[in-house]
Design a protein that fits this description.
By secondary structure, this protein is of the alpha+beta class. It folds into two domains: 1-219, tricorn interacting facor f3 domain (Immunoglobulin-like, Sandwich), CATH 2.60.40; 329-501, Neutral Protease Domain 2 (Neutral Protease, domain 2, Orthogonal Bundle), CATH 1.10.390.10. It contains twelve helices and 23 strands. The chain has helices spanning 4-15, 252-259, 262-273, 313-321, 338-355, 360-370, 393-410, 412-425, 433-444, 449-457, 484-495, 498-501; strands spanning 29-30, 48-60, 65-76, 80-86, 90-96, 99-100, 102-106, 109-113, 123-132, 146-148, 151-154, 175-184, 188-190, 194-201, 204-215, 222-225, 227-233, 239-245, 281-285, 293-294, 301-302, 329-331, 429-431. Strands 6-5-9-3-2-12-15-14 form an eight-stranded mixed β-sheet, with no helix packed on it. Strands 1-4-8-7 form a four-stranded mixed β-sheet, with no helix packed on it. The protein is globular, with a radius of gyration of 23 Å. Belongs to the peptidase M1 family. Pfam families: Peptidase_M1, Peptidase_M1_N. This is Aminopeptidase N.
Length: 512
């Protein structure tokens, strides 16, 4: 069990080592085959930092066949004799700075040996030509690419990019993207950022997308198939693009009634968290193949399941809150996932309060009571859930409770200043829990180690104690739950389904 001060010391010691540099190889040698993440040690790579991905793809839905050329623009962070890319499909050739390079593949690791060593600090380009049938590629029991009727979905967390482009697959190495996908005429392609146009030739249409802000690899996505597209001005005068599968049937209405409120939601969230960090916005709803929602940068994607009982703005709030917490400010390590999910879940509570369907305190009281003190829910630690429980419901709901407890202790003004400062200071970067605790203590002027320790790092339900943010009377049951609970619970039940689909945890998903 970590305690507040010990936690910060541990985090500081961990993060003092640069992620993409291996001290033992400072004089030159191979780049590390992992980024040093203790939950997923094989994810990411060392020795270089990617600034841009240019992806030229051709996809045939009838065969689920993908062919591509990825041009990766990077800067070396050490003298490199070889380096790794995370990739699951079959590479046909690799060039480094225009010259043919040797390579070998095993699992998700592709090791590339350039014809001559790459000096530290220099611009480098890696060009990989590849092809495959992504839905048939299984690595360690995972196949996140989903083939659908007439198309496919490349959407997942913590891994998806390796099934459609080679890269440095860890949130610490963000990059910009140009994505061009050729598909048979009449097929639509959705991706991140701005739609920069289409071109057609010999029965094929190429869709062009540009994502101009730094983006983690797992937040880059593709949705291919038969979609009804809508484009208009959204919040802050930005382009808003939404897309709905033509096969949604009776769910099309409630889906549109939810997703088309995204500009309203973003306006609300910007009032709490500061300026929206990106230049585009929107949403996508497929009709199959997805049992969660994901905060794909600038364009969250939602399972049709969220709209079975009618419109659902809670999930729209959740995924768009992630644009600040998760997308712009990404985790430093996957163990920091509470910084993503706690804020996104608490944003739902704030929205509920603004809509008059339940105050944040009423929702806190409800979830505090909903799980008895001996419930296994309280044994999962949001601040260090472990790789098998990264998407456990406790990371979401106990995580939101932790933020409300903090707000109860330090007051509304300090809480809002912390949220806005965190989003601004780490914009387009990364952050960890230790840094967040330090910021909270600096702004509030209080020692918050005991509070954070109780909510994030100690098994068991925190006792009813105002010093821990639990007001007297929180435990006894009141008459009825706030109206927002049914929608939030429905949202979180589906969201909790994402993890099991990818082999992580018993909760079924991070659609949140």
């Amino acid at each position: 069990m970590f305690r507040g001060r010990g936690l910060r010391a541990a985090v500081a010691a961990c993060c003092a080592t640069a992620m993409f540099t291996s001290p033992a190889l400072a004089a030159g040698g191979p780049g590390a085959p992992g980024a040093g993440d203790d939950y997923f040690p094989g994810y990411g790579n060392g020795g270089y930092d990617v600034s841009h991905y240019d992806l030229a793809l051709r996809y045939q839905p009838s065969e689920d066949h993908l062919r591509g050329t990825a041009t990766i623009v990077a800067t070396t962070t050490q003298d490199l004799t070889s380096f790794n890319l995370d990739f699951a499909l079959t590479a046909k050739s690799v060039r480094v700075n225009g010259m043919p390079a040797d390579f070998r593949q095993h699992g998700l690791e592709m090791t590339v040996t350039p014809p001559s060593p790459l000096p530290e600090g220099e611009l480098a380009t890696f060009v990989v030509e590849y092809e495959g049938v992504p839905s048939t590629v299984d690595v360690d029991g995972k196949t996140p690419w989903v083939r659908t009727a007439g198309g496919a979905l490349a959407i997942g967390q913590p891994e998806i990019s390796s099934w459609w482009f080679p890269g440095n697959d860890h949130p610490r190495d963000k990059a910009t993207y140009d994505v061009a996908v050729a598909v048979p005429d009449g097929t639509e392609v959705l991706s991140n950022g701005a739609h920069t146009g289409n071109s057609s030739l010999a029965g094929w249409t190429t869709w062009h997308w540009r994502n101009s802000e730094p983006t983690a690899t797992y937040l880059a996505f593709l949705a291919i198939g038969q979609y009804e597209l809508h484009a208009r001005k959204g919040a802050f005068g930005q382009p808003f693009i939404s897309a709905y599968s033509e096969r949604l049937g009776e769910l099309a209405g409630p889906a549109k009634a939810s997703i088309e409120r995204t500009p309203e939601v973003l306006d609300f969230l910007s009032g709490r968290f500061g300026d929206y960090p990106f230049g585009a916005q929107g949403g996508v709803v497929p009709a199959e193949g997805l049992n969660f929602a994901l905060e794909n940068q600038t364009r969250p994607t939602y399972s049709h399941l969220f709209f079975r009982s009618g419109s659902n703005t809670s999930v729209v709030v959740h995924e768009n809150a992630h644009q600040w917490f998760g997308d712009s400010v990404s985790v430093d390590r996957w163990r920091d996932i509470w910084l993503n999910e706690g804020f996104a879940s608490y944003a739902e509570w704030m929205w509920s309060e603004a809509q008059g369907t339940g105050t944040t305190q009423q929702l806190f009281d409800h979830y505090y009571r909903a799980h008895p003190a001996d419930d296994a829910f309280w044994q999962v630690l949001p601040g260090d859930p472990g790789p098998d429980d990264v998407f456990h419901e406790a990371v979401y709901d106990r995580g939101a409770m932790a933020l409300h407890a903090l707000r109860n202790v330090i007051g509304d003004a300090a809480f809002q200043e912390i949220a806005r400062t965190w989003a601004a200071e780490h914009r387009h970067g990364n952050g960890n829990i230790g840094q967040f605790i330090d910021l909270a203590e600096k702004i509030s002027g209080q020692d918050l180690g005991e509070l954070f320790d109780a909510w994030l790092f100690t098994p068991g339900r925190p006792p009813a104690d105002p010093s821990l943010g639990v007001p007297a009377g929180a435990e006894p049951r009141s008459a009825e739950a706030p109206a927002a609970v049914s929608e939030i619970d429905r949202t979180h039940e589906i969201l909790a389904g994402h993890g099991s689909a990818h082999g992580y945890g018993s909760a079924h998903g991070h659609g949140r």
